[in-house]
Amino acid sequence: MSTSIRKKRPDSGNNIMGKKTAAKKKSPKDKSRGRTGKIAFFLAAFGLVFILLMGIFGEWGLLDLIAQHKEKERLIAMNARLANENQDIRRKIHRLTHDRQYIESIARRELGMIRDNEVIIQMGPTGQNRQNGNKMEK
């Protein structure tokens, strides 16, 4: 028969040699170290939350970046529209300085000018002519 010899495991109250040790009481210094660690943890957590919120809602945050992107797109569209208007104005200026027929058409249309040998016959609106023509005077 074999006999096994068991060694006792040290308990929480025993040290390696098996001798009883007294339970350690926390000193006020140890308690303050625990409080300092908690305070440091909460300060770090608060700092991270603050940085995260500023990154989203701050002056140069994500929301501001999105608003600036929309403003940029609006300005690009406005710039393209104004470039087209400028090109049209340049064409009109060129035609006004070099194209006699264009100048004449504008003078006729806007100023009502005519040539020396032309006669203008003005007629009233077609609806008025019909009404006046159909009435009989007594």
Give an overview in words:
This protein is an all-alpha fold. The chain has a domain at 33-115. 64% of the residues lie in helices and 0% in strands. It is built from four helices and no strands. The longest helix has 37 residues, at 62-98. The protein is rod-shaped.
Largest sheet: none
Global mean pLDDT? 80
| Helical residues, percent | 55-70%
Q: Could you tell me the radius of gyration in angstroms? A: 48 Å
Q: How far do the termini sit from each other?
A: 154 Å
DSSP strand tally: 0
- Judged by helices, strands and strand pairing, the structural class is mainly alpha
Low-confidence stretches: 133-138
Relevant terms:
disordered C terminus, mainly alpha, about 0% strand
Topology readout:
Layout lengths: L27 H30 L4 H37 L1 H12 L14 H9 L4
In short:
It is built from four helices and no strands. The chain is an all-alpha fold.
